[in-house]
Amino acid sequence: MSEQWSLTVDSARPRELAAFWCLALGYVPASPPEGFATWEAWHAHFGIPQDEWDDGAFIKDPDGARPSISFLKVPEPKVVKNRMHVDIQAGGGRHEPFDVRWPRVQAMVGKLVAAGGSVLGVDAPDGTPDHVTMADPEGNEFDVL
Predict the structure, then answer these.
(1) Shortest CA distance to 13 belongs to which of 142, 136, 144, 135?
(2) Measured between alpha carbons, how far is 102 from 99 in angstroms, rounded to an integer?
């Protein structure tokens, strides 16, 4: 049996980064844990100082099938390339014909650039574009394919 897991991303601005990834992945902000009407009530219950209540943001797959993601505030900026990254498979997979897949990739890239992402490059090993490497608003790399 596999273990349930989630992903945690260090961030300077957790709520802003969470909003970007909600758009990128089709996720939604996570509801407070069961038994709490608000995140503020949860924070208060566990004695978290009020000045730390904005130090995290949490998103989830609305269908509950994929892992949740936490964004936690850290003081230091990102300084090196990611060792692990997300692949957003907006094109439907490499088995899709290029003329179907690539417009989907371009549409997603356009949406994410408008939301604060940036294009780092287009990988085209045989001259035909395969995927776009991007960075989120805090510089975390990911691919759209």
Answers:
(1) 136
(2) 6
Delineate the domains of the chain, giving CATH numbers in brackets.
7-73 (3.30.720.120), 86-144 (no CATH)
Judge contact between 99 and 79, C-beta under 8 A: no
The per-residue DSSP string of 51-101 comes to GGTTSEEEEE-TTS-S--EEEEE-SSPP-S--SS-EEE-TT--TTS-HHHH
CB atoms within 10 A of CB 76: 7
Helix (H) / strand (E) containing 107: helix 98-114
Would you write out the chain's pLDDT as a tens digit for each of its 145 residues?
A: 888 899 999 999 999 999 999 999 999 999 999 999 999 999 999 999 999 988 999 999 999 999 999 999 999 988 888 889 999 999 999 899 999 999 999 999 999 999 999 999 999 989 999 999 999 999 999 999 9
